[in-house]
């Protein structure tokens, strides 16, 4: 980057690249406070004064090494400098200011990040528990196995003791010889006739749809990001021990935060381990290999099955209603026909 001396219309000396200086000044208009007060808020990590967006902007506009060297060489009246230069000089009073700003940003977001992450972990756990504890789902699986064995009677597959999970999705593909009804429709009809209490099994699986949108890989990455983020916070605390009085408030605030954050991360790490075991146990519950049929595949398959099952049952109900109306209409026509014949008999 090339640096030149500019003189603005209001007489301030500009040492930094003009475009860079203008962008920095635009950013500072969004903070709207004296520079010393702003840096005091940074060192105190005061979330009531600066929000995460403002802190992230301050990070983007930290002075580079080249800019700091340039300003160190300035010997004129500092009051004559532009707002950008004055802002950079204020930041330069704080050792490793960018690192401290990143710590501040991490602290601001930590609460909501932890809360959302814990929510996702609990959702996965709930979905696993709901599926494994659903008596109705287990009964429907038994009926599907019985139905499959009945259809395959007399063949090598006619005495199966189980079936692959993805076979659930094939029930809608297998049609009767008249091509009017799928195996899914047949299953729903039989359940409606003999075990109607099982038809609402989806109500046992309230967390399934939300859980199906959660990727365990993303959870693993987020867990690592939280752990590494806290580690960087601790590193900055250690480095700030040599800063002197300028970082006294920063160190005090950071020590308090780390005490709370470490307890939260320990709790989350334990919960994350439980989630991993439960996710594997869900695949094993269906006698699937967790490596080949991971949590995401299990939940996606079950969710699709639920949707196809409910759609087939709804279509059965509509068809039954149409047949009922048709039968009523035919009965009325027969009744009307009978009355007409009776009248003819009387008249003759």
Entry summary:
The protein has 348 residues and is an all-alpha fold.
Key attributes of the depicted protein:
FH2_Formin, 12 helices, Methane Monooxygenase Hydroxylase, Chain G, domain 1, two-stranded antiparallel sheet, 348 residues, disordered N terminus, mainly alpha
Explain what you see.
The structure is a single chain. With 348 residues, the chain is mainly α. Among the domains are: 6-93, Methane Monooxygenase Hydroxylase, Chain G, domain 1, CATH 1.20.58.630; 112-124 and 208-293. Helices cover 68% and strands 1% of the residues. It has helices at 18-29, 35-44, 52-60, 65-72, 83-92, 97-133, 135-151, 183-194, 208-211, 216-240, 248-285, 295-347, and strands at residues 6-7, 13-14. A two-stranded antiparallel sheet has the order 1-2. A hairpin with a 5-residue loop joins strand 1 (6-7) and strand 2 (13-14). The longest helix has 53 residues, at 295-347. The chain is elongated, with a radius of gyration of 35 Å. It starts with 5 loop residues before the first strand and ends with a helix. Mean pLDDT is 90; it is low at 1-11. Residues 1-335 form the FH2 domain. Belongs to the formin-like family. Class-II subfamily. It holds the Pfam family FH2. It comes from Eucalyptus grandis (Flooded gum). Residues 310-339 form a coiled coil.
């Amino acid at each position: 980057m090339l640096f030149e001396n500019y003189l603005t219309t209001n007489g301030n000396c500009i040492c930094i690249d003009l475009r860079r200086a203008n962008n920095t000044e635009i950013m500072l208009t969004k903070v709207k406070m004296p520079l010393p007060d702003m840096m005091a808020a940074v060192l105190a990590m005061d979330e009531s004064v600066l929000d995460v967006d403002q802190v992230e902007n301050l990070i983007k506009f930290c002075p580079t090494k080249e800019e700091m060297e340039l300003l160190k060489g300035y010997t004129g009246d500092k009051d004559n400098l532009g707002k950008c230069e004055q802002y950079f000089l204020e930041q330069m009073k704080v050792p490793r200011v960018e690192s401290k700003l990143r710590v501040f940003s991490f602290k601001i977001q930590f609460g909501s990040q932890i809360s959302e992450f814990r929510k996702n972990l609990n959702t996965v756990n709930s979905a696993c528990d709901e599926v494994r504890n659903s008596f109705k789902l287990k009964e429907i699986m038994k009926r599907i196995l019985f139905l499959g064995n009945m259809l395959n009677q007399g063949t090598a597959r006619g005495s199966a003791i189980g079936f692959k999970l993805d076979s659930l999705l094939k029930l809608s593909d297998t049609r009767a010889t008249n091509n009017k009804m799928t195996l899914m429709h047949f299953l729903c009809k039989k359940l409606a006739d003999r075990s109607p209490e099982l038809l609402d099994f989806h109500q046992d699986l309230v967390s399934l749809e939300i859980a199906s949108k959660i990727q365990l890989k993303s959870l693993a990455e987020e867990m690592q990001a939280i752990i590494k983020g806290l580690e960087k916070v601790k590193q900055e605390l250690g480095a700030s021990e040599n800063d002197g009085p300028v970082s006294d408030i920063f160190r005090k605030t950071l020590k308090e935060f780390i005490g709370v954050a470490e307890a939260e991360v320990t709790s989350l790490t334990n919960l994350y381990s439980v989630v991993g075991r439960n996710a594997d146990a869900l695949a094993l519950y269906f006698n699937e290999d967790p490596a080949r049929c991971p949590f995401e595949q299990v939940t996606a398959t079950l969710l699709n099955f639920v949707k196809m099952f409910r759609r087939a049952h709804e279509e059965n109900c509509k068809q039954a209603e149409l047949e009922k109306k048709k039968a009523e209409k035919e009965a009325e026509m027969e009744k009307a026909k009978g009355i007409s014949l009776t009248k003819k008999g009387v008249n003759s």
